[in-house]
Amino acid sequence: MTRSTAAAVGLAFFLMFVTTASASPPTITYSITGIAGNNGWYRGSANGDNVILHWFVSADTTETNCLGAVPVPGDTAGTTQTCWAKNAQNETTTVITGELKIDATPPTGVTANFSRGPDYHGWYNHPVTIGWSGTDATSGIAGCSSVTFGGPDNGAATLNGGCTDMAGNSAGSTAQLAYDATPPVLSEVKERSTATADKLVWSSSSASDRVVVQRKVRGSKGSATVFDGSAGKFNDSKIHAGAEYLYTVQSIDEAGNASNVVFITGLPKVLTLQKTPFVPRATRSPMLRWRRVRGAAYYNVQLYRGSKRIYAAWPRMPQAGVPPTWKWSGHRFRLTPGRYHWYVWAGFGPRTLAQYRKVGSARFVVPRS
Q: In CATH, what is the architecture of 187-266?
């Protein structure tokens, strides 16, 4: 091959290389700088500025509209960015669609919602569910927290919750409630009978507990509330001396929880000589009364337990009180639990004449304490 021929071949190869190089279009690549959130969203940048789109074009580019770094402001549900570049003979265009979803704003209007209202005077005494709700204008709400509170007892319980958007931003709020599911304890309920009143005393868990006392007369169907308030005692003076009363006592705390019901009896203080549909029960020292008999100078009262006489008295008035203890036939007696039978005779003239006329008899029971 001659020298001129070799030169021609070399020139041909050079021209082919230049033509091939010039025929390749420019290359365009990119990267995104920002805090990646959830579901393909960005949540802004570390320094709080905009998300940055970085364009990279090949070195043979002669003209382009792509800046090196493009700030992409939020919030946006998906911005479109375009980059084109060309060289001597070719042009390349790259379009980014849907990759630049930016939500840097947490949910707004986050509030706690109770599944129901308080059980009693602003208090909850049963488990309640609290769910949070909110709105998000850009990416939307992904979910909100929910909790069922059932204790411990707390007059100012604080619960935290909130909502998260699709990008992963969160916002919260607190919920407060008064909760008490523990019933009060009613104890030391006692009754002391006098001739004019039934005196009840008790103790509840708290001095602020409300106590309700209901009363029913033995043999009747209905009952009545005779006390409703915060106290440790009640003096029931609106009673009939010869009636037996059944009391129910129950305490209720500020949250509406109720204690156990305590039943206690107010026994008759006075036993009247009359027919009753039941054998009355009496206190350990009852007063025995009967109708006045015209012309009677005195009366004879006798008390039996079983077939044994254990007490006798000769009062001038139509009543006789059984003492706490007494002596009869050389023995000391008192009214112990059991069944008793009492009799009354009217005496006329001096006692030495022993002129009697029977007035009547009745029974009573002294119950166990």
A: Sandwich (2.60)
* CATH hierarchy code of domain 23-102: 2.60.40
Torsion of CA 188, 189, 192, 196, to 10 degrees: 140
Sequence-separated (6 or more) residues with CB below 8 Å from residue 307 = none
Backbone phi, then psi, for 250, in 5-degree steps?
Answer: -145, 140
- pLDDT one-digit tens code per residue, 318-362: 999 999 999 999 999 999 999 999 999 999 999 999 999 999 999
Q: Which residues contact 47 (CB under 8 A, 6 or more apart)?
A: none
270-366 CATH choice from 1.20.120, 3.30.1560, 2.30.30, 2.60.40: 2.60.40
Write the pLDDT tens digit of every residue in 76-90: 888 899 999 999 889
279 to 282, 319, 361, 363: CA distances (angstroms) = 10, 19, 12, 6
Show the CA angle centred on residue 16, arms to residues 11 and 19, nearest 5°.
Answer: 125
Q: What is the DSSP letter of 294?
A: T
Which H helix or E strand runs over 359?
A: strand 355-366
Hey, what are 220's tokens? 């009747």
